[in-house]
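agent: user wants the structure for Cystatin-like protein from Sinocyclocheilus anshuiensis. delegating to structure tool.
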Amino acid sequence: MRGLLFLLNTLLLLESTKAKGMIYDKLNDDDRKIVDKAIAQANKDYGNGKHLDFFTIVNQNNNMVNVVLRPTSCNRTTPSVHRKECSLHNKPPQFSCIDCKGTMERCLLLKQTEEIKKRMEKCSLSVNIHRTGSAHAMFQKSGNEQQQIGCLGCI
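agent: tool returned. relaying tokens verbatim.
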């Protein structure tokens, strides 16, 4: 019985992670706006003939969303929006569009991994990360950003 429950839990977990971010209609409104902005940006910059459309979202946090786009079977049209009738191709070029705190720079080819990594790190570094317990007196820093040691009354 325990093995059957484990199997069911595993299948449910796999299904929930597999579908995450893959279906445009299941995105929340904020993510859909970012995806629409990415589709418009990529088609403006790179849409030479074929329409580029939403494939998935990777590496998402509070301030950054990385949208992956792929070419489709449809010809490029204006305005560039998500088109359900187009089937995605699994061939290059594929693009990564990174939205950092509401701003989106030019999309990059997916094979430009180093530049994509730099943009994601730059976006992550500009965010103040809250660490649980950091407000405790033992973790307070002086004006020169060095952690103070010693008794609490001495710091």
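agent: one observation worth passing along. DSSP finds three helices and five strands in the chain.
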